[in-house]
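agent> Task received from the user: take the single chain below, predict its 3D structure, and emit structure tokens. No templates, no multimer pairing.
agent> Plan: (1) validate residues, (2) run structure prediction, (3) serialize to tokens, (4) report one or two observations.
agent> Step 1 OK, no nonstandard residues flagged.
tool_call: predict_structure(input=
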Amino acid sequence: MKITCDKTNVKLLGRSMLFGDELLLSLSGSGIEFEYEGCGLKLTLLGGEAATYPDNEANYARMAVYQNEERVADLQLSAGETSLRIAESSVPQRSVIRVMKLSECAMSLARIAPLEIGEGESVRPTPAKAHRIEFIGDSITCGYGVDDEDPLHPFQTATEDVTRAYAYKTARALDADFAMFSISGYGIISGYTGDPAVKMENQRIPDYYESMGFSYDHMPGIPAPSNLPWEFGAYAPDAIVVNLGTNDDSYCQDDEARQQEYATAYAAFLKVVRRHNPDAMIFCVLGLMGDRLYPWVCKAVAAYSKETGDQRIETVHLPEQDASVGYVSDYHPLESAHEKAAAVLIPAIREVMNW
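)
tool_result: status=success, residues=355
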């Protein structure tokens, strides 16, 4: 018996979208969670065109499968279709299964085909958590390189794991459902640039926030994620965490005019976030990979609140990673640095939200 992964059968994690009977996943942390009762089910995952290119292993979608909170599969979708047997037993048993995309949208897409279960077996959504959080960010939120503790190594999806990053850790500690909108290298006015004279205007989160994201990967017969509008009513967060500015800083440097441009654009983006999330508390954070723009985050929030009268917004300064302890690939934060950031963010959210 085949079970389509829609909201009547499974809990949808993050932004996902059905095309026919297959569920498209783009962003980090997107996936499904469900209660299964039976003797074993068949899970089929499909990669995008990135999985068909030779010598492109650095960009295959990375997926994880959990059974009762234990990671039982961790794989890259290196072929067009990959099938797994999950929760096998000699007698029927009840399990909570979670299938989640560990890598980000920019380099890799994935689909989940209908689940295949036996006669008399069942699948149903896990209950919704009492709280819901959305995280808007960049490579830090994605868990860039967290599995590779060599700062000289470049990006690859095999070493990216959203579950080891501060955002996922924060949501889990608060027992909240989560959604991520994060793309490595992206910012508010500019993506990361190695030359401050070059502004990366094609790498801005506000340009894609109202969609399923941005990807260089493609799925046969499916529009690009950036051309798929997101229905915000599908997931209404109680709290939103915005962590953007690390990549902008590579362009802004100490140029006050550029920093002001960042703050002005940040305030404008907050209006977009608020329009789509009228009831959410917004937390604007920065600092894990440097805090030079944090005062400008505070100025952006103050200007936004003064103009709109919106007081449901806070700023939180995250602790900067410690160079003496080390880095992961491309000088990104170790998991221990993510844990320190989460240790600051968790109580800040808990106090404001009364969770």
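agent> Step 4: summary for the user.
The chain has two domains: 2-125, 131-353.
agent> Done.
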